[in-house]
Amino acid sequence: GVEVGPQPQGVARADVLDQMRKIVKHGLDFVQLFNEGNEFPPCTIEVFKIMEKVDYPRNKNGEIIAIIHPKLQDQDWQPLKNGDPLFLTLDGEVIPYQGNCTVYPTFINEAAYYEKKQAFVKTEKIKLTAKPLRLSDS
Questions:
Q1: Which of 54, 63, 95, 98 has its CA 20 to 30 A from that of 72?
Q2: Is 3 a catalytic residue?
Q3: Given 3, 46, 52, 115, the catalytic residue
């Protein structure tokens, strides 16, 4: 499956659909080249691995008491370091990120995740290495 976004629910955007067409075409090209016996050399790629889902700050009644800080909004996949602004309370208090390593938040302030008690997902950037790949003769 391919999920392309973010975009609001029920909205069809030409630029996002074009991106989806391109990635599906690349996937199909890979399958064809693989099936033709082409060898793919080893490679290394950076990926983002999910660490944990982070909820909004809440009061004892479970109500959200702070929103995503404006400096974090729309910064998916960007580094978040210890002390960077994370949340903003309704009375203007900044709640900073407190962590022992740089993380890369994503799905920041996504409306679909409010009911799941998820303000964003913390990810870490890691490198994966793939061995050479070729269709087996057997």
A1: 63
A2: yes
A3: 3
